[in-house]
Write a structure and sequence with these properties.
With 290 residues, this protein is α/β, with parallel strands linked by helices. The chain has helices spanning 5-17, 29-41, 53-67, 72-76, 99-110, 127-135, 148-161, 205-208, 225-233, 253-262, and strands at 78-81, 84-87, 117-121, 140-145, 166-170, 185-190, 238-247, 266-272, 278-284. 42% of the residues are buried.
């Protein structure tokens, strides 16, 4: 039986949508996955066009993998992040498209500054750091991660994309950064591990089976331990009017904002993504900082 582009997308999206191994946080995500899988195996664009049998088989194998919980980024080998092809690798956190919101917010705060400096903590394979380097070519960008595979992947992505303004360091949060960045960083971003220690085992397989535990939880009961630590340490690295931007889960935005307020940050706000989901807590450096 001949199958069209439209048939395959509808069938694939339905199968993905029904999988119990996937975090179905965004309504259209299953369709987006199916479209991305099909686009990777055929360049046919007409929804009514018949797909060659070989491409159908490749597409169905990809859908099978997704239904079993394998992340779409791992299946495809890359993520389209702010029009950049960011390649992924095992042993590192897979980029989330939700991080585009935080990246744009950081870039907006960097534009117009003289010699802007951006630091991205828990950078993974570098999507946020690379996104800022792409959006603000004049920026000096530093990404940091504790996992060797992540830093290796980020450096490889920077080389392939030709983003020479982005540098990546192996280590724990601020520790590996050049000391000269103290007090002169304009924006710090982080997508921290924010799942509470006792909640990890309740997450779907796509989250627990394919990424290191340290990318999912900071082992604090409420998952906000790293947020508190970064909020406390960031002022020493920020300029007087510098910004800290933190991406958290859909139910933690207000709590992260509360942490910033209690730490003395000014102009604290939360920002929703294009789907109206609060994702990012933002604050300006406290007036009194180390």
């Amino acid at each position: 039986m001949a199958l069209t582009i439209g048939d395959l997308i509808a069938e694939g999206a339905d199968r993905i949508r029904r999988s119990p191994h996937i975090d179905h946080w965004q309504e259209e995500a299953a369709r987006f996955d199916a479209e991305a899988f099909l686009a990777s195996v055929t360049d046919v664009g007409d929804p009514a066009a018949v797909v060659p049998a070989r491409a159908v088989r490749r597409f169905e194998r990809m859908v099978d993998r997704r239904v079993r919980g394998e992340p779409a980024a791992r299946i495809l080998g890359s993520v389209d992040f702010l029009d950049l092809e960011v390649r992924v690798r095992d042993g590192a956190f897979f980029p989330r498209i939700s991080s585009e919101t935080m990246t744009r917010e950081a870039a907006r705060r960097l534009r117009g500054r003289r010699r802007p400096v951006h630091v991205d903590l828990a950078t993974g394979v570098g999507p946020v750091a690379l996104g800022v380097a792409h959006l603000v070519p004049a920026a000096e960008v530093h990404g940091v991660d504790i996992l060797p595979a992540a830093v290796e992947g980020a450096r490889a992505n920077a080389r392939r994309l030709g983003l020479r303004g982005a540098r990546f360091h192996l280590g724990d949060l601020f520790a590996p950064l050049p000391p000269r960045l103290r007090g002169r960083t304009d924006a710090i971003t982080i997508h921290p591990p924010y799942i509470g220690e006792g909640e990890v085992e309740d997450q779907p397989q796509e989250i627990t089976a394919y990424e290191p535990a340290v990318t999912l939880t900071d082992f604090s009961p409420d998952g906000l331990g790293m947020v508190r630590r970064v909020a406390a340490e960031a002022p020493g690295w920020l300029r007087p009017n510098g910004w800290l931007l933190i991406e958290v889960g859909t139910d933690l935005g207000r709590r992260a904002a509360g942490i910033l307020r209690r730490a003395g940050y000014r102009d604290v706000e939360t920002v929703a993504d294009e789907y109206g989901i609060t994702r990012t807590a933002i604050g300006r450096r406290p007036r009194r900082a180390p």
